């Protein structure tokens, strides 16, 4: 599909952006010179585990004393930013509190054959002709390949299915107009036609919605570029009418209001709104219109999964970082950001949890979340912070020589701003291992690659509230459940683990933190019988959904375990167990437009943010936040670096 808009508007925007970026690069900031930081000490390895680039544990002899940039956290945003900076000549040190790098990209193996992802289930815009694919190829050194979920022998051309539990899909109900789940096909035209076939009386509403998608698509990237500019700079002021203003109406309206204005058909609204739950953990009545439209633009050409699993993406980025002189260390939790004693509180480095080790650097980038950054990394010297167990911090006060990284006035201002932002939601994650005899049964048990989303009813808000506001001992359905099969999406899975193996993964929400808060300071596998019984009650409910959808797997489940918000706190450092960042509500959009960006003025000079709280949840926004952060550091001219990533000026013009 051709992506174009009126020539006069395009010319105006291009001239404005081009002129301001060139002027900014020439007169405001010079381009980064080669690093003056000495090379990092050679890596020492003593066993095969440490040869795994995702598991390089912290050793004093491997830890440099100085770096150009320190990045706290090794999720996709942290690694993407590190790769971009390392390839620009920076000496980058990535420090991760967990025992492996990757954040939501990491995976784990149980019983030697069941490999599970922890956060990455699919991503859009990864066809070889698309911009995100080309940028990801750059940050991974071209070492990743992607498989289209729609390329499936069981159900070709489909990447998602929406299954309403209030509908009867049995063959005994042929007169029911909703007698089958809604399959989401690949391709803009195919999806539009599928909607019109399922909702023939809503053709006008569907056409209007697709027109809204096209209109929003022209505004999203310019707005992200604008948010990378210094908040009160002349560059931000002069470009706001062209880069920000066209996008702001989408960020100041609720998605549910947009859907209500289009149609009264509750089923259609649910089919259009389901992505907001699984991708953002936000119902359409809280979500901004921009995010819902953005999700549909993102997936309009289908969804993709990395060959060799999500950890291969993290490993490729780590390899690229190391190839360009950087380093990624795990079991290397950062306890505090260090600043000088001047009024501007300039960043000087970090102090680690381990033995209070210090690494000096003029720039520190946090990818662990805004609240975790302020309440953890930037806490006052006399504040022990979160408890040491499961938080990633030391739980101790700082030595008297440590300077408070924030003035009292700035700390108070930040506190007020944070109070206006909502908290993210938690989930139950289910991991199921299935074994079958490939000599007696059909390949992969005739299960398709596509994801399935279970919704109790068309009323997404009411269903979500009915679950999350219940007593957790009752059997109210989850507000939503996503079911995926990682082993089927990965064409190389059989090569690694053999035939006859299927893995299934659930995400179910939203789960209140209060249900699990009592175990926040306990250790994995040592949380007691009450905790295990609560997990088992959710386990049965998830298996019931699996058997409802795929009865052929009954009797073949060989492994099952669940993750909870307490596990999310342990492995991802989320203090309240939230799976995602700050929910993309109107309040978050207001912060994005005014103060929340890679460089927050109230943070110490030399401190930057990347990740979900800067953009929204997901792999593509994580990469985008890295581009925004590099531009905030190096100046607006850094956006010109994207042009060679996309293949030059001509290819960039075609894509845009």
3D structure, described in words:
Helix 3 (76-86) packs across helix 21 (619-634) and helix 6 (203-227) packs across helix 11. This protein is α/β, with parallel strands linked by helices and 656 residues long. The protein has 23 helices and 19 strands. The two termini are 12 Å apart. It is 38% helix and 15% strand. This is All-trans-retinol 13,14-reductase. Pfam families: NAD_binding_8. Keywords: FAD, Flavoprotein, Membrane, NAD, NADP, Signal, Transmembrane, Transmembrane helix. Belongs to the carotenoid/retinoid oxidoreductase family. CrtISO subfamily.
The structure class reads alpha/beta
Largest sheet: 7 strands, mixed
User: What's the arrangement of strands in the largest beta sheet?
Assistant: 7-6-15-16-17-14-18
Task: State Rg.
Answer: 24 Å
Q: Any low-confidence stretches, pLDDT <50, length ≥5?
A: 1-13, 26-32
Counting H and I runs of at least 4 residues, what is the number of helices?
23
Q: Helix fraction?
A: 25-40%
Q: Which characteristics define this entry?
A:
transmembrane helix, 23 helices, membrane, 656 residues
Q: What's a quick, concise take on this entry?
A:
Belongs to the carotenoid/retinoid oxidoreductase family. CrtISO subfamily. The chain has 656 residues and is of the alpha/beta class.
Layout of SSEs?
Layout: H1 7-28, H2 48-51, E1 69-72, H3 76-86, E2 92-95, E3 107-110, E4 114-117, H4 131-139, E5 146-148, E6 158-164, E7 182-185, H5 188-198, H6 203-227, H7 234-244, H8 248-251, H9 255-262, H10 266-280, H11 289-299, E8 304-306, H12 311-323, E9 327-329, E10 334-339, E11 347-352, E12 358-360, E13 363-366, H13 370-377, H14 408-419, E14 426-435, E15 451-455, H15 460-468, E16 480-484, H16 486-489, H17 493-497, E17 501-511, H18 529-549, E18 557-563, H19 565-572, H20 586-594, E19 607-609, H21 619-634, H22 642-646, H23 649-655
Parallel strand pairs: 1-2, 1-13, 2-9, 6-15, 13-19
Antiparallel strand pairs: 3-4, 5-8, 6-7, 10-11, 11-12, 14-17, 14-18, 15-16, 16-17
Helix pairs in contact: 1-7, 3-12, 3-21, 6-7, 6-11, 9-11, 10-11
């Amino acid at each position: 599909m051709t992506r174009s808009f009126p020539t006069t508007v395009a010319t105006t925007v291009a001239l404005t952006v081009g002129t301001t970026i060139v002027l900014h690069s020439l007169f405001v900031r010079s381009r980064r010179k080669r690093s003056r930081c000495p090379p990092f000490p050679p890596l020492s390895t003593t066993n095969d585990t440490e040869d795994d680039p995702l598991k390089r544990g912290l050793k004093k002899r491997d830890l440099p004393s100085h770096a150009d940039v320190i990045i706290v956290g090794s999720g996709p945003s942290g690694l993407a930013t590190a790769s971009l900076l390392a390839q620009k000549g920076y000496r980058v040190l990535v420090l991760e509190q967990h025992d492996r790098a990757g954040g939501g990209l990491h995976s784990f193996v149980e019983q030697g054959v069941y490999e599970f992802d922890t956060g990455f289930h699919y991503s859009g815009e990864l066809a070889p002709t698309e911009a995100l694919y080309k940028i990801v190829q750059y940050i991974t050194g071209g070492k990743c390949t992607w498989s289209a979920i729609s390329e499936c022998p069981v159900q070709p051309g489909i990447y998602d299915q929406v299954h309403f539990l209030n509908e009867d899909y049995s063959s005994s109900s042929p007169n029911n107009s909703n007698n089958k789940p809604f399959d989401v096909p690949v391709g803009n035209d195919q999806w539009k036609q599928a909607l019109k076939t399922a909702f023939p009386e809503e053709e006008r509403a569907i056409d209007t919605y697709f027109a809204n998608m096209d209109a929003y698509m022209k505004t999203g990237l310019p707005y992200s570029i604008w948010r990378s500019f210094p908040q009160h700079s002349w560059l931000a002021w002069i470009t706001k009418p062209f880069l920000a203003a066209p996008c702001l109406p989408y960020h100041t309206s609720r998605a549910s209001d947009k859907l209500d204005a289009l149609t009264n058909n509750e089923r259609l609204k649910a089919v259009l709104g389901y992505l907001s739950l699984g991708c953002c953990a936000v119902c359409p009545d809280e979500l901004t219109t921009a995010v819902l439209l953005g999700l549909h633009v993102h997936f309009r050409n289908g969804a993709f999964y990395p060959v060799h699993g999500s950890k291969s993406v993290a490993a490729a980025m780590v390899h690229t970082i190391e190839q360009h002189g950087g380093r990624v260390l795990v079991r290397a939790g950062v306890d505090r950001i260090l600043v000088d004693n001047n009024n501007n509180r300039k960043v000087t480095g970090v102090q680690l949890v381990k033995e209070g080790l210090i690494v000096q650097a003029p720039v520190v980038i946090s990818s662990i979340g805004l609240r975790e950054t302020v309440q953890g990394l930037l806490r006052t010297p006399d504040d022990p912070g979160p408890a040491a167990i499961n938080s990633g911090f030391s739980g101790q006060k700082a030595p008297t020589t440590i300077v408070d990284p924030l003035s009292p006035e700035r700390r108070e201002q930040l506190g007020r701003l944070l109070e206006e932002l909502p908290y993210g939601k938690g989930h139950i994650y289910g991991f199921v291992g299935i074994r079958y005899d490939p000599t007696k049964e059909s390949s992969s048990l005739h299960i398709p690659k596509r994801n399935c989303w279970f919704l109790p009813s068309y009323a997404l808000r009411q269903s979500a509230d009915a679950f999350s506001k219940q007593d957790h001992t009752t059997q109210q359905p989850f507000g939503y459940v996503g079911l995926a099969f990682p082993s089927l999406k990965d064409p190389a899975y059989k090569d690694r683990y053999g035939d006859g193996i299927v893995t299934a993964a659930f995400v179910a929400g939203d789960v209140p933190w209060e249900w699990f808060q009592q175990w926040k300071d306990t250790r994995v596998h040592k949380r007691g019988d009450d905790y295990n019984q609560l997990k088992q009650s959710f386990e049965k409910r998830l298996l019931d959904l699996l058997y409802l959808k795929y009865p052929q797997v009954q009797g073949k489940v060989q492994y099952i375990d669940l993750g909870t918000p307490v596990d999310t706190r342990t492995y991802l450092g989320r203090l309240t167990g939230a799976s995602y960042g700050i929910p993309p509500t109107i309040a978050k959009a207001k912060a994005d437009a005014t103060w929340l960006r890679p460089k927050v003025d109230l943070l110490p000079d030399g401190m930057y943010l990347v990740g979900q709280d800067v953009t929204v949840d997901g792999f593509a926004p994580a990469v985008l936040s890295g581009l925004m952060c590099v531009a905030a550091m190096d100046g607006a001219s850094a956006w010109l670096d994207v042009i060679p990533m996309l293949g030059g000026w001509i290819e960039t013009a075609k894509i845009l």
